[in-house]
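Supplementary Note 3. Input sequence used for the single-chain structure prediction.
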Amino acid sequence: MSTRPTTGPTTGPPAGAVAPRRLSDVDALRGFALWGILLVNITFMASGYRGTGVDDPAFGSALDTTVRFLTEVFLEAKFYLLFSFLFGYSFTLQIASAQRDGAAFLPRFLRRCAGLFILGLCHAVLLFPGDILTTYAVLGLVLLAVHRIRPRTAVRAAVVLFTVTAVGYLLLAWALAAAGGGGIDAAAVTEQGRQATEALRGDAASVIGAHLRQLPDVVFMLAFFQAPAAFAAFLLGLAAGKRGVLNDLARHTPFLRRLQWAGFTVGIAGGLVWAHASQGYSGTAYQLVAVAVDVVTAPLLAAAYAATVLRTLAGPRGRRLTAVLAPAGRMTLTNYLTQSLVLAFVFTGFGAALVGRVAPALVTLTALALFAVQLVFSHWWLARHPYGPVEWALRAVTLARRPRWKGEAT
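The predicted structure, written as discrete structure tokens, is reproduced below.
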């Protein structure tokens, strides 16, 4: 999420560090990433079958299948990478900010990571097990340990991390194929999905119990899939921040064009493989191959999205798009948690208990409507306050003092 750590006690500004002021392009890009995160997360909150390897039997029409397929091709496993890139980029902004303030880095950053971890733990247990904040808090400490790395070395390390992760999944696929195993017990998994759905429709204790039962699987997925890719994206963001890539978009237009060409071509092809493997191939060697493909192609599609948004921001309609997206990006943490809170009341027994009762197309429309409301609210709030409410609280923990509450941010 949007964080503002500071720099090491004896470390000077990184080479090419961006100015300490907030960059509207970064905020707008973060708002765009928040939109994609919502479109993916809502599919997991709306169904007890997501992540089980089988589709919800209540929604098997051609439209339902198409919506799920398109979500997997274009959205799933892409936007958290963009979010992670921005975490690494923002780290360099926060380094510059701390140096400007003459503040010590380590205590601030440790307090911030502790705050993120506690927020994420509460979020995972109470609202949505697929939380990313705890992962960011832990990986943030690793980023802190290597933040002096040179930009070129950071990029190489990210490429190696993506590659090693993909090779690991290919080796698992080979071992599974050689053992002659694979596949899932569809009947048993379907029953598990039904039980999860019923638990999520129950009272508060039932909902929390369902979340706790999901957490081991979520932690496994985070540790062996999301975390390595997220940290690689951290490193790419760190390198971009040290080079000040987003400071002068016009200078990087040819590179952004190449990202679009390669990202959309290779990234969508990889997304098609990923989505196809989800259609009845869960637990097979083919699915593991698809995961490996996604590990190396999803970053390219995420980069193509980012390049497209950044080129639009630099164009004649850039100011208008920035005005729409940047406020949401400035209070990403508040909006991220609010999304889960609202959707928990919509889909679980905390409220309407509509889990498993809303078709995929309507789920997507719900996400779009919620994000539209958040865009308006973010603009209204930031006209009166310098920070989002959760950002304000986390900033208070980070700085160990009470930040300004009223007044428009500069």
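The radius of gyration is 21 Å. Residues 1-21 have pLDDT under 50 and may be disordered.
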